[in-house]
Design brief:
- This protein is mainly α.
- The protein is built from 17 helices and no strands.
- Helix 6 crosses helix 14.
Length: about 325
């Protein structure tokens, strides 16, 4: 029934579940859900998705309740992406599955953790997200997701080239989400004020969070309608990336955002060196995975939440009280 609805309603440019390139291991058909819906559900119910609630977005271990975490970022990406997909009559289920899975491989402490691991080995969170769904989740069996979902997860970064328009939606929705919610969090933290944002950005995108989101989303929809490519207009694309650079220059590298980062970097580096030196201390579920000792250390660390990384570091470095 859903396949029929997709065939009748979706755009000619949409990815149809019935035409999926499939899975590595075939599954019996589900009487209710399409393959893309099943993939969305598998991601939503996996442990890696739940751990995102305790992983840093920008501000490390913020005290306030309203700062974004990696989980709330993911939900905002999903909401933006679904809005765009629905307006363009593209596949909303595929879009949502990619959006929910795109950051599953992020390290504890966000890009600080990524930076730490990159001092020893190549680490990219999009590649680790794909490894998470292919190999690490579901007790080492992987999720056995469809090609289109896996492709969208791998290619959501600026260097990627998604094979589907739904993947392109998520790539742009990711940028729109983090630029705008990071502005919101930075204003809340007192790093910048709304009036610090250069006037030409405020004139083009709007003065407030909701207005900026709406203008960027509407521009993508207008520019991409009946088009085999999803992207903003040339002006918006250029200025979105310029606003992103403004955030790198004034927020992501600010003393407030960076004040504790060196501690997170040093901690993740310590954990990597410790577990590559003593691989027998890595839990058995990771030791049995294919790969080098270094890869197993990366897998274990990337699975950690911020809180678990601190606990692990503390257990290794802080003497326990003696108790007879």
């Amino acid at each position: 029934m859903t396949h029929q609805i997709e065939a009748e309603y979706l755009s000619e440019y949409a990815a149809k579940a019935a035409d999926s390139k499939g899975r590595e291991r075939p599954l019996a058909e589900d009487g209710l859900r399409t393959d893309f819906q099943r993939d969305r559900d598998r991601i939503l119910h996996c442990k890696a998705f739940r751990r995102l609630k305790h992983k840093t977005q920008v501000f490390l271990s913020p005290e306030g309740d309203h700062y974004r975490t990696r989980l709330t970022h993911t939900l905002e990406v999903s909401q933006i992406a679904r809005t765009i997909a629905r307006a363009l009559r593209l596949n909303e289920d595929l879009t949502e599955a990619i959006a929910l899975g795109h950051d599953l491989g992020h390290t504890p402490y966000g890009h600080a953790g990524e930076k730490a691991l990159n001092e020893f080995t190549h680490f990219a969170h999009n590649e680790q997200s794909l490894r998470m769904v292919d190999v690490l989740e579901y007790n080492g069996e992987g999720m056995n997701l469809c090609f289109e979902v896996r492709d969208g997860i791998l290619n959501h970064t600026s260097k990627g080239k998604p094979a589907t328009l739904e993947g392109q939606i998520v790539a742009w929705s990711d940028r729109i989400a983090y630029i705008n919610h990071d502005i919101d969090d930075a204003v809340r933290a007192g790093v910048i004020s709304e009036t610090d944002i250069p006037a030409h950005f405020r004139r083009l995108f709007g003065e407030r969070h909701a207005a900026r989101l709406n203008s960027m989303i509407m521009d993508i929809i207008t520019s991409s309608e009946n088009n085999p490519r999803v992207a903003p207009s040339e002006t918006f694309e250029r200025e979105i990336m310029n606003l992103r650079q403004y955030m790198f220059d004034n927020v992501y590298s600010s003393p407030v955002a960076k004040a504790e980062e060196y501690k997170a970097v040093d901690m993740i580096k310590f954990l990597y060196k410790h577990f590559t030196k003593y691989p027998e201390l890595i839990p058995e579920e990771f030791r049995r995975m294919d790969g080098s000792a270094e890869q197993k250390a990366v897998d274990y660390i990337s699975m950690m939440s911020d809180n678990y990384a601190v606990k692990c570091f503390t257990d290794i470095t802080v003497p326990k009280n003696w108790n007879k």
